[in-house]
Design a protein that fits this description.
Blueprint lengths: L4 H5 L4 E5 L13 E5 L15 E4 L41 H21 L14 E4 L7 E4 L2 E4 L1 E3 L5 E3 L4 H16 L10 H19 L3 H11 L3 H6 L3 H4 L3 H6 L20 H29 L5 H12 L9 H9 L1 H25 L7 H16 L4 H10 L5 H4 L10
Parallel strand pairs: 3-4, 4-6
Antiparallel strand pairs: 1-2, 5-6, 7-8
Bound molecules: zinc ion (ZN).
Length: 418
């Protein structure tokens, strides 16, 4: 059973309009209406609530070490809800739209992950800043999440179009992902920070963005349409990246292993930003592979396709004979029953999201190694459904060079960054 956040919040929540993909992509020209969990009428102008607020400062530079929130300078007027408290009436060309979009997108990401976690995410910075400050525009070609704030500049999106990053769901969800991982997993001290934890942080933020995007009906339909429902073959051939002009999926379906990236024993502060992003890629790939395996599992369990056909597909994968594999299998079935494929993908999304959220909740950020996360994921999965997924999860991680051996041998000190 998968669930729909829109259905869940439709009667009592607040409406926003969000771009889940760049509007230049076919089918994404208009933002999608979503319902977030904030009770209608509860949001104050900004929008703002007890945990976060959007403001529109006049002439503000990006925050740095010398300047921290809250912003106390002048601001443009805040966006206001309609009479019922919704924010979907604000036109996309309204100067306040980006602030509304940013608030709605972060609220949506929180809704997704709080449903998986079974409770609210408490900001890691709330000891000094009770609320997250959101600024949709600073003169900068980047976006960042820091102590008590998130702010965005402008830059080219995946389609090469200059856009405010505040209108890019992927970037906002990734930045919100950083905040959530700090809040859920925690913050190491300098002595216990590893290069792996920095890589994990980037990867987990990408996973947060990908699974959050899969809560938009149009995005799910888009992914299935460009692959004809066949995420497996396209993933194995690393072809989704070409087919799908969606950053989340393109980054997730990569073929990198730990042996392809910088040594995890490198001192955390000696790793460049670019190396950190690459270091997370094998982990992101493993998580995506598990999503695809869960998806196949649900297709079989729901009677959409037979186990033998999936087995034949995997066999072709092992022999790298995809070209001769029955490519019509999925295309025909998908054309016949697109709804069944959508259900399977949404169920796989929630299976994975629930397991990741619970595993992350139990992790410690100190002396982090990827194998410990794998061990926790297996523990959580076993508590949920016994041993049926164990082999799948293990194989997806082992193929990436992440195995339990490093963890079970107790040889953790070699990963310790002093
Ligand atoms: Zn990041």
């Amino acid at each position: 059973m998968s669930f729909s956040l829109n259905d869940f919040h439709r009667r009592t929540g607040t409406r926003f309009r969000l771009y889940v993909q760049s509007p230049v992509l076919e089918g994404f020209g208009e933002p999608e209406t979503v319902w977030v969990s904030s009770p209608a009428g509860s949001l104050r102008p900004g929008p703002a609530d007890g945990r976060m607020y959007a403001i529109r400062p006049v002439d503000k530079k990006p925050y740095d070490d010398a300047a921290m929130p809250p912003w106390i300078g002048p601001c443009h007027p805040p966006a206001r809800g309609d009479r019922a408290g919704h924010f979907d009436h604000i036109a996309t060309d309204d100067p306040a739209f980006a602030s509304v979009h940013m608030f709605g997108a972060v609220r949506r990401v929180l809704d997704v992950w709080e449903s998986y976690l079974g409770g609210p995410v408490h900001w890691h910075f709330n000891i000094t800043h009770p609320r997250l400050e959101m600024i949709a525009h600073v003169p900068w070609d980047n976006a960042h999440f820091g102590w008590g704030f998130m702010e965005c500049g402008e830059g080219r999106d995946d389609q090469g179009v200059e856009r405010p990053f505040a209108l890019n769901f992927d970037i906002i969800a990734h930045e919100a992902g950083h905040g959530m991982i700090f809040s859920i997993v925690g913050m190491p001290v300098p002595e216990t920070l590893t290069a792996s934890y920095r890589g994990f942080h980037e990867s987990a933020s990408d996973c947060v963005a990908m699974l959050s995007a899969l809560h938009f009906d149009r995005f799910v339909d888009h992914v299935l349409r460009v692959t004809d429902g066949n995420l497996y073959v396209e993933n194995e051939m690393n072809r989704i990246g070409e087919l799908s002009r969606t950053r989340q999926i393109r980054k997730a379906s990569n073929a990198l292993k730990l042996s392809d990236v910088i040594d995890v024993a490198t001192p955390a502060n000696d790793v460049t930003g670019k190396q950190v992003h690459k270091l997370g890629q094998p982990h992101t790939g493993a998580v995506f592979d598990i999503l695809v395996e869960f998806y196949l599992d649900r297709l079989v369990a729901n009677g959409v396709t037979a186990m033998e056909k999936i087995a034949a597909l995997r066999e072709a994968g092992r022999c790298a004979q995809f070209e001769t594999a029955d490519r019509t299998l999925f295309a025909d079935a998908f054309a016949r029953e697109p709804e069944a494929f959508r259900t399977a993908l949404c169920e796989a999304r929630d299976m994975l999201g629930l397991r990741l959220a619970e595993a992350w909740r139990r992790l410690t950020p100190h002396d982090f190694i990827f194998a410990r996360e794998l061990d926790m994921l297996l523990t959580v999965d076993a508590e949920f459904t016994g041993t049926r997924n164990r082999q799948t999860i293990l194989e997806c991680f082992e193929w990436r060079g992440i195995s339990l051996e490093a963890y079970e041998s107790g040889d953790r000190r070699q990963y310790r960054i002093g």
